[in-house]
Amino acid sequence: MVQLVPAPAMDEITFRSDTVLSDVHLYTPNHRHLMVRLNGVGQPVFLSQFKLLWSRDSQTEPGAESGGHSHVHAEGTPPGSGCTDEGSSLSPGAGTTSQEGAGAQLDEDGDLDVERRPRATSDPDPAEPPRDKVQPVVLAQEEDDGPGDEAWDGSALGVIRIEHTMATPLEDVGKQGRTVLELGAGTGLASVVAATVARTVYCTDVGADLLSMCQRNIALNSHLAAPGGGTVKVKELDWLKDDLCTDPEVPFSWSEEDVCDLYAHTTVLLAAEVFYDDDLTDALFKTLSRLAHRFHNACTAILAVEKRLNFTLRHLDVTCEAYDHFRASLQALQRLPDSRLRFVVEPVEASFPQLLLYERIRQLELWKIIAEPVT
User: I want to staple 54 with a disulfide (CB 3.0 to 4.6 A). Which of 19, 132, 262, 355 is the partner?
Assistant: First the structure.
């Protein structure tokens, strides 16, 4: 949690408290982030690209080699599941490139070998900025791409484009044939990916400005959802309220048709990087339980949390208080006495194939919550 203080140069940043640095800048610090506009409160909005590492080129001709641009999966097969649907197959090595333009490498077993660490800072002549510095490249939209950069082409099926700010005030963080509901969508990245395999995705958060940015990101990447027929709907969902807002005068409110569809068809919930405040963590688990009781079907929630280590004066030690509260909430949910539903909590090993280009850190944890009727 940091605050950015203006410095004479964009590549030298001083960090202070009360602000959260964008995950996009943290996990892809040496990539180009194109500044495209200012948002409603005057913050610069950047446009970044993510390279998808899966393919469905063999959908029409099973077994044929794939080539060219990577494509998204057809409806029904989640990336990384290892299963095929109507002949589609995962071909992570086919025609994929990293954001630096280097070809994807396979190890001796034929598995995708994704480089986990950037160039060492001890390199006397590094081609890229050191890993421990956050160095956004602020460009004019019409500026030519620099050496080694991919073209900023939104039509490529293997590329996701996401608008985001570089940092967010702490009080605004978190504003940041299946129906999927994402809670606390932020920029909407997970919703965009989910739309490649789901029939309908409800991308939810709070705050008109944030939801407007989600809507822009959905539009920027509509070409990814189109092949599978997925639809993304951006809606407001406040964890501190018991009901969905259906007032048509409120931006991003729910229509009665959407509410009925949500409750009748949702089977998957997603929540990523939203467990940083104890009160909001409590509110999210309360919302998750309330929604699960209203859904007509059993559902599975996938929660992603980063185990953040902080030195506190209160303990005079390194602690993970937000993470500890999250784990306690998981245990409480599993022990919750309920005559209708039972919640089964399971860890998810982060050893599945990496189908999106990002830096996978060891502090990342995934948890699965299955809500099913009591028999």
Answer: 355
